[in-house]
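Consider the tokenized backbone below.
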């Protein structure tokens, strides 16, 4: 999974979850 795909997937998950994505999750995506 590339970075853009990961971000798109994460974004789609956020539609169903009202809470924001934790900073640690964003860091994991960026460091992948």
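A designed sequence for it:
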């Amino acid at each position: 999974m590339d970075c853009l795909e990961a971000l798109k997937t994460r974004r789609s998950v956020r539609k169903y979850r009202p809470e924001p994505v934790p900073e640690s999750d964003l860091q994991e995506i960026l460091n992948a």
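Residues 3-16 form the longest helix (14 residues).
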